[in-house]
């Protein structure tokens, strides 16, 4: 039983005992053996505390979380005043619709001074134990060691919950300072084996975050000191009153199962419930997510989503795959976990990685915005609004508070992509000219790219070694070794050891390889891109100058797998569509709490389309139901079906737009 449950049970027992007269306290405390007045009193206490216990033991993230995140509008430079202004509007305008988390995104500890940026070094505020604390100039209430306590108190007084963004492991700045590590059980520096342990003992320099290499690195969780550092971090966040933590550079291409696992254990033992979110989602597959979904409450499944149509369209395939794998609403950390399609970049925004706040409006058309919020809702993604709430317009507000979408997002079930649709496209509309027919997508160009997957994936065992001469070997993707296509090969070289520190690493990484793009060039394959990528981007293999970094270290196994020392994931060549999701008709289906059917049509085509499905096909996606006819309404146009239909549902959908039906079917 977890700490907070143990405490509630203990308090319950104390109250029950206190309500029983001393002379009546027997080994058996059955109410039937007590005087009537005592029994009634005890039953009252019992009812009250069972109620408290049921509330406190409620599953975490029982529905997809909702809230506001500062990143899309303020990047990393948000101030305390700006944050609280947005939180106040969140409380006043959106809390009633379930938006309850106000989240400070990354680098709240970085000083806003010349030279500071998203991957700068030496500008962070850390305490004596090497832990990040808010920049007091941007967050003045944090002075005198208060951290986010005052901000949390104000957010809680608004009826909201506070969230913060944190990075993997430990900061490079703390390692360079060789800060001591706090042992929270003693309140002193951590000691083991007769010595005091410090940041340089636990920081894994070769496992620096691939896209923030100057900022953070993994810690060695095999060491008691490494665990003590992580424990001191998350206990401090809890002491501040934090309710939600977004842990970045630990998932996707940057997977760090060891840290996720230990942090999850720490969160289970805290005295306050904290939702645990993982990021980023580059290259994530259902198999990869299954290793951590039970350790978290939400996890990103794409790269960063920004306000481009390509980013929106890139979510359709991955959302389909996670729904088919039954990952939506699966078991999570002390509750439920949700695949996360990323924030909603709507309203008034900034630019990715910018050193400035909100200064422009969303670049998506209203049709594209409708498609985004419809997909996010029916795929049951967490809904984290990213625009500056101080400048939210009526149209944006109406989209993110649409009652049908929010009902679907929270309470629908059986959510899957619905493949039984057809679409006819005509640039002149549905009543003029010749139409062209599509199934669920247009023809798309396929390209092969290097990606990562769980090593449990059978397809990962696809590599072999080819000897060119006595001193030169290649590692090649064997599926391309036959036929006329040129195989994808990399040159194999043992990783070089150049310093005493690297000799120490060398014992840990003995037998590890560098994989070179060519025989003579000192350019090595990276496991994770060295910059943050968006949802619509895919990497064909990222190469950079060879270094002694785990992001460029690989281990070839005799079973044909090629394992990254950075993430523990396996390399794989996979075919992707160069314009994946960029065209065609798509559809999703779900069922409601009272038996209604939700049916969404999406036009990903550059032309307007007529999209249709047969009523008889609806049952194919809803096992156990037999459907003969339906009535209902299309939400975005606010139009009723003309009459009960038993044949076809047809909708004219503009380019990049959607239609959403609520159906009552027999």
Detailed description of the structure:
The structure is a single chain. The chain is built from 17 helices and 38 strands. The strands form 11 sheets. A 9-stranded mixed β-sheet has the order 14-15-13-12-11-3-2-1-18. It has a 6-stranded antiparallel β-sheet with strand order 19-32-33-38-35-36. Helix 1 runs antiparallel to helix 2 (36-56). The model is unreliable at 1-17, 23-34, 36-40, 45-56, 428-443, 497-507 and 578-582 (pLDDT under 50).
Primary descriptors:
single chain; 666 residues; alpha+beta; nine-stranded mixed beta sheet; 38 strands; globular; disordered N terminus; Glyco_hydro_27; disulfide bond; transmembrane helix; transmembrane; glycosidase
The termini sit apart by 46 Å
Spatial strand order of the main sheet: 14-15-13-12-11-3-2-1-18
Helix-strand category: alpha+beta
| Count, helices | 17
As a percent range, the share of helical residues equals: 25-40%
What's the β-strand tally?
38
Portion in beta strands: 25-35%
Principal-axes shape call: globular
Low-confidence stretches: 1-17, 23-34, 36-40, 45-56, 428-443, 497-507, 578-582
The biggest beta sheet, please? 9 strands, mixed
- The average pLDDT value, as a whole number, equals 86
Instruction: Tell me the radius of gyration.
Output: 27 Å
Signal peptide: 1-22
Organism: Rhodamnia argentea
EC number: 3.2.1.22
InterPro entries: Aldolase_TIM, GH, Glyco_hydro_27, Glyco_hydro_b, Melibiase_C, Ricin_B-like_lectins
């Amino acid at each position: 039983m977890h700490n907070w449950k143990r405490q509630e049970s203990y308090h319950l027992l104390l109250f029950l005992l206190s309500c029983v007269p001393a002379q009546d306290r027997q080994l058996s405390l059955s109410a039937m053996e007590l005087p009537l007045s005592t029994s009634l009193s005890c039953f009252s206490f019992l009812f009250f505390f069972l109620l408290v216990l049921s509330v406190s033991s409620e599953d975490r993230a029982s529905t997809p979380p909702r809230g506001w995140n500062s990143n899309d509008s303020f990047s990393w430079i948000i101030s305390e005043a700006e944050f609280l202004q947005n939180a106040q509007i969140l409380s006043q305008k959106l809390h009633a619709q379930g938006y309850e988390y106000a989240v400070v995104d990354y680098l709240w500890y970085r000083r806003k001074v010349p030279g500071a940026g998203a991957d700068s070094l030496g500008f962070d505020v850390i305490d004596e134990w090497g832990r990040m604390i808010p920049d007091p100039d941007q967050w003045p209430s944090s002075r005198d060691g208060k951290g986010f306590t005052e901000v949390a108190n104000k957010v809680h007084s608004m009826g909201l919950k506070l969230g913060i963004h944190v990075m993997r492991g430990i900061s490079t700045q703390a390692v360079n300072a060789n800060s001591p590590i706090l042992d929270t059980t003693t309140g002193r520096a951590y000691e083991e084996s007769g010595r005091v342990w410090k940041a340089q003992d636990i920081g894994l320099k070769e496992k620096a975050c691939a896209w923030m290499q100057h900022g953070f690195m993994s810690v060695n969780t095999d060491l008691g000191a490494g665990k003590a550092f992580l424990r001191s971090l998350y206990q401090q966040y809890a002491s501040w009153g934090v309710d939600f933590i977004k842990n970045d550079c630990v998932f996707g291409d940057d997977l760090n199962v060891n840290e996720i696992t230990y942090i999850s254990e720490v969160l289970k033992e805290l005295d306050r419930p904290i939702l645990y979110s993982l990021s980023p989602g580059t290259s994530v597959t259902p198999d990869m997510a299954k290793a951590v979904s039970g350790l978290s409450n939400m996890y990103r499944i794409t790269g960063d989503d920004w306000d481009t149509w390509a980013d929106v369209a890139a979510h359709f395939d991955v959302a389909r795959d996670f729904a088919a794998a039954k990952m939506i609403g699966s078991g999570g950390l002390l509750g439920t976990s949700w695949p996360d399609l990323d924030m909603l970049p709507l309203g008034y925004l900034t630019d990715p990685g910018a050193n400035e706040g909100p200064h422009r409006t969303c670049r998506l058309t209203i049709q594209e915005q409708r498609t985004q919020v419809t997909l996010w809702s029916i795929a049951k993604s967490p809904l984290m609004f990213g625009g500056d709430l101080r400048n939210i317009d009526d149209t944006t507000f109406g989209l993110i508070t649409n009652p049908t979408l929010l009902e679907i997002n929270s309470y629908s079930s059986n959510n899957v992509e619905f493949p039984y649709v057809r679409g006819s496209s005509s640039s002149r509309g549905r009543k003029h000219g010749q139409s062209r027919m599509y199934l669920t997508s247009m023809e798309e160009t396929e390209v092969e790219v290097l990606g990562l997957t769980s090593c449990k994936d059978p397809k990962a065992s696809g590599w072999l070694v080819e000897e060119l001469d006595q001193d030169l070997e290649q590692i090649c993707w064997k599926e391309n070794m036959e036929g006329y296509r040129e195989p994808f090969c990399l040159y194999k070289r043992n990783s070089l050891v150049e310093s005493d520190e690297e000799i120490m690493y060398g014992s840990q990484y003995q037998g590890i390889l560098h994989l070179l793009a060519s025989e003579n060039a000192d350019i090595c394959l990276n496991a994770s891109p060295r910059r943050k990528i968006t949802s619509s981007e895919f990497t064909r293999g990222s190469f950079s100058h060879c270094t002694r970094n785990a992001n460029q270290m690989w281990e070839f196994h005799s079973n044909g797998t090629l394992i990254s020392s950075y993430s523990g994931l396996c390399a794989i060549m996979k075919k992707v569509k160069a314009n994946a999701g960029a065209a065609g008709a798509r559809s999703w289906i779900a069922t409601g709490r009272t038996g209604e059917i939700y049916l969404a049509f999406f036009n990903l085509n550059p032309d307007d389309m007529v999209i249709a499905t047969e009523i008889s096909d609806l049952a194919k996606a809803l096992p156990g139901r037999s459907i003969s006819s339906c009535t209902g309404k299309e939400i975005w146009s606010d139009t009723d079906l003309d009459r009960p239909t038993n044949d076809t549902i047809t909708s004219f959908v503009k380019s990049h737009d959607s239609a959403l039906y609520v159906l009552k079917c027999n």
